[in-house]
Automatic annotation (TrEMBL), chains A, B, C, D:
Belongs to the KdsA family. Pathway: Bacterial outer membrane biogenesis; lipopolysaccharide biosynthesis; Carbohydrate biosynthesis; 3-deoxy-D-manno-octulosonate biosynthesis; 3-deoxy-D-manno-octulosonate from D-ribulose 5-phosphate: step 2/3. The lineage of its organism: Bacteria, Pseudomonadati, Pseudomonadota, Gammaproteobacteria, Chromatiales. One of its GO terms (cellular component) is cytoplasm. Its main location: cytoplasm. It comes from Spiribacter vilamensis. It is an enzyme of class 2 (transferase). This is 2-dehydro-3-deoxyphosphooctonate aldolase.
């Protein structure tokens, strides 16, 4: 259960892969500046890094929220990040995304949690022959991800990862069940933890989803110690003024310190092994 | 907050509208036979009836489950039901459904719970200028349906209904929160209760979702007494051998007795009024 | 599964029994005035009525909240209600209640939801040889109430009822699962629905639990239509100034209209029978 | 927020304290044998250790399950453990426990999750002037533990710890919310994680609660990385034949390896600090 994404190996016997970036492409230059800092940060620490940004937020709570720069500009920016820093990029695709055009530019496709049960969509994305990160629906039990992975792999694509991003817990709240990170190993796909959306309070701000940024380090540390192949985290130089998901973005200038703690934990846990796997 | 669907009025000051039929079109003749019985049953009782059947189950747990006869045959059967019995028909559409072709044949479009947050999809369906029944996501709070309804109405379509079908309650279980039926009145859209999917045990049978048919009458009675404009219920002459959702389908031959109880409750509650609305 | 409480029969083949009163005894005269109105209201409608009031709230969120007049005064008031209006009274007992003294005065003992799993406590209460209404814990599945009832009956007391009052649903929220009302019939004990505490928002006001009174009629109607032997409801002439549980108390002057709707529903549903029981 | 338990300091700036032992005292000699192994294990690793065992399981699902050796024998065994190995012991007390007799023998009292809201009980236990470990109810939000701690401290006892053991998540399941471990720091009491009861499936075996031992290491690692003052864990030399809670006990012979991983994580996280606290 190790897969390869553009030269990076993902697996429980590999160092933690960081997937990070702003929630949405805000401007070309701002996006490149973030990518530069993240590249430097991860190069210094010698860990695999994949840049993440959305260009079209297709499922925001309210129709009047900022959705992004649109596809043409968005892909242009992602392509620039990719080339300038020589790093792989990931973006999310949706029900009406022209998949081929996106797959031409990005290295790793991501499917939204809400869409994890849409058979045709999942298979269409998997058929693009790019690695696919499938987010687990907020309504799905971890063991039910096996069927989702099987559907995706039925297209012949074996580079599938699964991602925990919290499960519905009453109204307007999610809980990140750490058991899920171990349970999803049974899918055969490397498991990634999304520390950003796990602290979302869906719909919690009326016309937008709220979030509790202060829980990002808590859940990220917990997940890394539970044992994951990758960590997904949104970051922003100025979260209070971010155009999307600001409440749960982690401040870019505080990321290095957090990263150091996480990598130390990752190293310890992968050294000691996973007692649950011998069960 | 009364809307018109093909000659039927839907609202809290109207008699309960029944939306019923098999989960999926199994064969042309079997589907027509069910429609005939339901037409007779509802005509005798003088209530609005809309026939429901899917022709393509796009989000089944496992890729190997029966999905239906496909679009051409499915629409043909729905058209036949519509013409032969002079009743409106409802079907559900998905991310890749050719919406125009479906809207040409059916009277009422329904969007799946998983897709309720996909802005483009909801607006594409609403733009078809047919009434749209929007199922509330298993991950959504009732008050958050206002944004969904607003998105749909932004297309100019005012004939929107909202539908409760249970909310995530731990893993592999749903709970039907009766407060939701009252809370969703604030959307301005008539509220429908789906008694079939509310008793689903998602993923509960391993590669398929289970269900607890015995709770259908309990939840249907409760919802009608809470006060709804319509009731959605899947029924089958032989649920044990149904090709989809059998475990939560109500046996067709036991529907008349259940319907009598429900209509009597509906009449009582609508006579006495809704104390919560004066609050 | 019919039991007798001071001349009243409780069961699914009997008219709905109303258990109502203020959350807590506030003053002797105010309590008697409420009891008088309730007695009149229920006599006119020919239904069994049991007066309910607590005299010591032993599990309030904060230690500084009003707990009641204490045992001596509280029992005196309950005894006065009992004698003056010739009606049975119910009160709740707690871990340190002198059970014999209470059982001397009240007709029906009630155990708190939080304590439903305390074997010694449940058996001590059951051993008082009074009917016991056991509230289901907010953390318990309906089917697990069978063990609780069995423990209580092991004392030789057969007059046990079980009561649904909502189940934990995320933080600071409860949901009333109507399936529970049918599922708990398997305990062999008549099932009662508590419409007041089911709308509680536990801890929702910081140092006290909040509540949403507007959902009381919705849930009460739903539960009666699901089919119950009794309905528990707290009422107050001036809920905004009630000393405990005001946010979820139903205004006394609006109770007659609500009661009329509920009794009409009760009559309809018990006439038509319970389709789920034939399953 | 550091407290002292018999010479051990508990706090986020101290090494992890281990509270471990069998669920229930099975026999005098078996209990001593377990205590000996645990003492050796923790002495070698230089960490604070508190021996834990119950002598009377007062809230088992079914009345016919093994409850323990009773108080006299139970306390005798605990006293023997205490003296022979010179270690502090912890046990849980219940609604009818003679608190003085227990407090004479044990160093640390623990209150059950179900009873966390019983004001009189919590205060009676706190009044014993021993450290008290208060388990958070399965029905309680983390921030609501502040009221519980305040009630306890109102007795003058400042040596209070709080303990997360999972929160209700649908029926017959719990989820361990790692955010709770950080949120409960606001109570001012050191936070302990109970890795054993967090993997319980309440009522999951019909007449007894089930459990998923394989999740113990996952949750324990996650909690330690989230940051806690202590870890509570039940262990047994032969879990399959344990008389109580066997399904969630961790095998004694596999504890050293698990402990090594946990202590390494604890050391890393306490070195790097808690980014969330600076928020």
């Amino acid at each position: 259960m190790t897969i390869r994404v553009q030269g990076h190996e993902l697996g429980l016997d590999q160092r933690l892969c960081l997937i990070a970036g702003p929630c949405v492409v805000e401007s070309h230059s701002a996006t490149l500046a973030i990518a530069e800092q993240l590249t430097e940060m991860t190069t210094q620490r010698g860990i695999p890094f994949v840049f993440k940004a959305s260009y079209d937020k297709a499922n925001r709570s309210s129709a009047s929220s900022y959705r992004g720069p649109g596809q043409a500009k968005g892909l242009e920016t992602l392509a620039a990040v990719r080339e300038r820093f020589d790093i792989p990029v990931l973006t999310d695709v949706h029900e009406y995304t022209p998949l081929d055009e996106v797959a031409d530019v990005v290295d790793w496709l991501q499917t939204p949690a809400f869409l994890c049960r849409q058979t045709d969509f999942i298979q269409a994305v998997a058929a693009c022959n790019r690695p696919v990160n499938i987010k687990k629906g907020q309504f799905l039990a971890p063991w039910d991800m096996s069927h989702v992975v099987d559907k995706a792999k039925a297209t012949g694509n074996t580079r599938i990862t699964v991602c925990e991003r919290g499960v519905s817990f009453g109204y307007n709240n999610l809980v990140a069940d750490m058991r899920s990170l171990a349970a999803m190993r049974a899918t055969g796909a490397p498991v990634i933890f999304d520390a950003t959306h796990s602290v979302q309070l869906p719909g919690g701000q009326g016309s937008a989803s709220g979030g509790q940024r202060e829980h990002v380090p808590v859940l990220a540390r917990a997940a890394v110690a539970a044992g994951v192949s990758g960590l997904f985290m949104e970051t922003h130089p100025d979260p209070a003024n971010a155009l999307s998901d600001g409440p749960n973005s982690w401040p870019l200038d505080r990321l290095p310190a957090l990263l150091d703690a996480l990598l130390a934990l990752d190293s310890v846990v992968k050294q000691h092994g996973f007692a649950e796997n011998e069960h």
